[in-house]
């Protein structure tokens, strides 16, 4: 498989999604503290940080699955919690870390569920919905697997099926929580190449939580680094992935060298510091 290089964009569009002084908690346990973040239209952002730092919790809040105890999340300048659920679903798609489909559900049926936000008792299933599902399946190379049960797919195929559902949903904001978890390296690249194409060819604004810093640097235009529920760095991969930040955030002594394929920063671990 040939790796496609995705250079950073030279311009920044209007802010589509923003967190303002957001504090997030589960019961009395605060997970994210006073976080400010702006995500520009047409950008590709990767959220990185050690386990338990609040990455997935932040993504849940951005996707309106978790309400801040303080601060607010804005979607296109409006408080997301006050935006009707159906309208949010037409704009923003969130794929959790390990999505689960009902037993026996086929790929075609899963992808068709992406059309639900566009339907109502006045607007039932249409030829337009059928075309959107067919296009999403074709675009993700899942057409031949349309009649296959989702639970019978390989890990990489399953992730493509879920991304196909998000594509059929028609949202231009896509939030992905660790889409490469449990995948071998070739399937990780396969999934990230698909997401990158959604960004570059379909104009999707992408936010993805990733553990692999080298893949994050290769595919994302912007990195957001978190530690202990706090945003500690934000910028281009070259600006964020420094030896000092790796020592502070990941307790890792490392060297930064150019990726021989993409030219982006590549982390070469030396040893754990503590």
Automatic annotation (TrEMBL):
GO terms for cellular component: plasma membrane. InterPro entries: AAA+_ATPase, ABC_transporter-like_ATP-bd, ABC_transporter-like_CS, P-loop_NTPase, Siderophore_ABC-ATPase. It is a peripheral membrane protein. One of its GO terms (molecular function) is ATP hydrolysis activity. Residues 17-253 form the ABC transporter domain. Gene3D superfamilies: P-loop containing nucleotide triphosphate hydrolases (3.40.50.300). Its main location: membrane. It comes from the Bacteria. This is Iron complex transport system ATP-binding protein. GO terms for biological process: iron ion transport. The keyword Iron applies. It is found in: Cell membrane. SUPFAM superfamilies: P-loop containing nucleoside triphosphate hydrolases (SSF52540). Keywords: ATP-binding, Cell membrane, Ion transport, Iron, Iron transport, Membrane, Nucleotide-binding, Transport. PANTHER family: IRON(3+)-HYDROXAMATE IMPORT ATP-BINDING PROTEIN FHUC. The keyword Chaperone does not apply.
